[in-house]
């Protein structure tokens, strides 16, 4: 899974990407799991040894009564299965409730009593089975434990529940409804085909959400933290159709990543100091705090409150993750036919670009490009070239890994034909009687040693990728902010409906939760 953004290759390191459902079921070259558990560079701290204590719990997926119609906000998310239901998503949804206050509705994973929160831990296990699983059926979550949710959940985060909750809450006019969605996402052929994965392995597409909201009278503000969440910026348009260029009244949104990029933030490590997700930065900023909870200056207009756009601005500046956040106003601007001429500084453009100027100044300072901001374009290209070199090494090592896997599998399965199928009725008896022989074969098998060496080479190169992605993200945020400023200044000079639409979206994004 690769994508291009401003010349930078974006790799499927997987922070908040959904499993690729179109992938063939057999083993894939170089892919240890569909979505990597978390970006290695963002995980730190010693693992705790945890012995899971499974116990019967009553899980309730539906609400306790009719869906409420007078809620101020809806926060929903989690993984589509426990494997993708990392603890950081739960933490972010808890922080959403804290930041947004009373009067909301919380939908999480499997619902009340759900025992499916993935937490990084060294759970006791069978070392031989772990090697076989890693060889024949690699997947995420095996280096983690699972516990019940600690959230006071109103219902499961299923597609059916989310549709019903939003429909009930938007059925009458009123103050804007804030919808906060956290979890894993996936791209589509078109931007509006982008989806967020919900519990039960179902998805909600941006185009479907737009059409449902088009039919409802209540204005909506939406925040998404998933990979490729920028596809939901199509909500700026009626029916999520940028070709028609009809502005959807009363609707706007802020997103963790562009439609081409993955996002940080789906982390099984519960240590908040090790996390860099957009949601953590954004939600803390709504309370006037940095990621660690320290009070910082976030109120840019001096009105004593923090708007959605101000919190979004803070995330763009402060995050050291791979995110390149975007918004509906940026999408509108980029969908507008280009305006010729030279950009002109005007009072109208200056007023609407307040947050953009803060991003440009802060990122230029961080990157050592003050007064030389345009050099960010060359810097981004240099990162792309470095990424291409690392890509070549990963492809080569992945090919070697896959070849070694095939040789290893052929030799093992010739002796133990059901070794790759722990569900086979003969597997348990075979493992019990042949355990010592299987372990000895793995210890001495040359092909298996080559497989392990190739895996180690892939992982080392992926760590280099992580560093490049983080630097590339900072550069791309600056490049996009510069592009936004230029486009907005040109559009302001021309005026007209396109400019008015842009101003309306920025004004919408400057909404303050609880302000009516």
Largest sheet features = 6 strands, mixed
The share of residues in extended strands comes to 5-15%
Q: If strands are numbered along the chain, what order do they take across the biggest sheet? A: 4-3-7-11-12-13
- Global geometry: globular
Helix and strand string, N-terminal first? EEEHEEHEHEEEEHEEHHEHHHHHHH
Radius of gyration: 24 Å
How many helices does DSSP assign?
13
The N- and C-terminal alpha carbons lie at a distance of: 42 Å
Uncertain stretches of 5 or more adjacent residues? 1-14, 21-52
Q: Share of helix among residues?
A: 40-55%
Structural class: alpha/beta
| Rounded mean pLDDT score | 90
Secondary structure: number of strands: 13
Q: Please, could you describe this protein's structure?
A:
The structure is a single chain. The chain is an alpha/beta fold and 516 residues long. The protein has helices at residues 87-100, 127-136, 159-169, 206-214, 278-286, 308-318, 328-335, 347-352, 354-366, 375-415, 427-444, 446-494, 497-509, and strands spanning 2-5, 8-11, 73-78, 104-108, 117-120, 144-147, 177-183, 185-186, 195-198, 202-205, 220-224, 251-255, 326-327. Strand 8 (185-186) and strand 9 (195-198) form a beta hairpin. Helix 7 (328-335) packs antiparallel against helix 13 and helix 10 packs antiparallel against helix 12.
């Amino acid at each position: 899974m690769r994508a291009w953004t401003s010349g930078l290759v974006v790799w499927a390191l997987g922070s908040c990407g959904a499993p690729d459902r179109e992938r063939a079921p057999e083993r894939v070259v170089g892919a240890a799991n569909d979505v990597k558990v978390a970006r290695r560079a963002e995980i730190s701290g010693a693992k705790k040894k945890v012995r899971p204590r499974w116990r019967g719990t009553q899980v309730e997926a539906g609400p306790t009564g009719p869906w409420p119609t007078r809620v101020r906000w809806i926060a929903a998310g989690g993984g589509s299965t426990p494997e993708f239901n990392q603890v950081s998503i739960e933490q972010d949804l808890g922080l959403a409730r804290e930041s947004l206050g009373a009067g909301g509705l919380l939908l999480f994973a499997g619902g009340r009593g759900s025992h499916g929160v993935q937490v990084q831990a060294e759970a006791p296990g069978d070392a031989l089975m772990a090697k076989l699983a890693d060889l024949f059926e690699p997947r995420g979550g095996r280096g983690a434990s699972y516990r019940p949710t600690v959230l006071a959940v109103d219902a499961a985060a299923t597609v059916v529940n989310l549709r019903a909750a939003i429909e009930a809450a938007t059925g009458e006019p009123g103050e804007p409804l804030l919808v906060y969605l956290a979890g894993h996402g996936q791209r589509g052929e078109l931007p509006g085909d982008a989806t967020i994965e919900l519990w039960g392995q179902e998805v909600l597409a941006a185009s479907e959400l737009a059409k449902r909201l088009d039919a409802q009278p209540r204005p909506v503000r939406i925040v998404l933290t998933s990979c490729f969440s920028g596809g939901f910026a199509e909500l700026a348009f009626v029916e999520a159709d940028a070709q028609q260029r009809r502005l959807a009244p009363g609707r706007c949104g802020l997103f963790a990543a562009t439609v081409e990029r993955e996002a940080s933030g789906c982390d099984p490590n519960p240590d908040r100091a090790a996390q860099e997700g957009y949601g953590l930065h954004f939600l803390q900023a709504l309370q006037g705090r940095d990621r660690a909870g320290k009070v910082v200056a976030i109120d840019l207009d001096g009105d004593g409150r923090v708007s959605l756009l101000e919190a979004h601005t803070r995330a763009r500046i402060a995050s050291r993750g791979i995110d390149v956040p975007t918004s509906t106003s940026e999408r509108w601007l980029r969908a507008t036919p280009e305006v010729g001429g030279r950009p002109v500084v005007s009072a109208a453009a200056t007023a609407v670009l307040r947050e953009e100027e803060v991003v440009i100044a802060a990122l230029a300072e961080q990157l050592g490009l003050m007064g030389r901001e345009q050099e960010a374009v060359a810097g981004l290209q240099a990162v792309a070239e470095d990424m291409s070199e690392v890509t070549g090494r990963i492809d080569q090592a992945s090919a070697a890994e896959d070849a070694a896997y095939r040789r290893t599998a052929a030799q093992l399965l010739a002796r133990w034909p059901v070794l790759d199928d722990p569900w086979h009725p003969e597997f348990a008896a075979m493992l019990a009687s042949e355990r010592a022989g299987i372990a000895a074969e793995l210890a001495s098998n040359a092909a298996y040693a080559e497989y392990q060496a190739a895996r180690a080479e892939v992982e080392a190169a992926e760590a280099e990728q992580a560093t490049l992605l983080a630097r590339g993200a900072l550069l791309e945020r600056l490049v996009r902010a510069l592009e936004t400023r230029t486009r907005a200044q040109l559009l302001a000079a021309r005026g007209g409906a396109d400019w008015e639409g842009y101003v309306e979206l920025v004004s919408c994004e400057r909404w303050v939760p609880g302000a009516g």
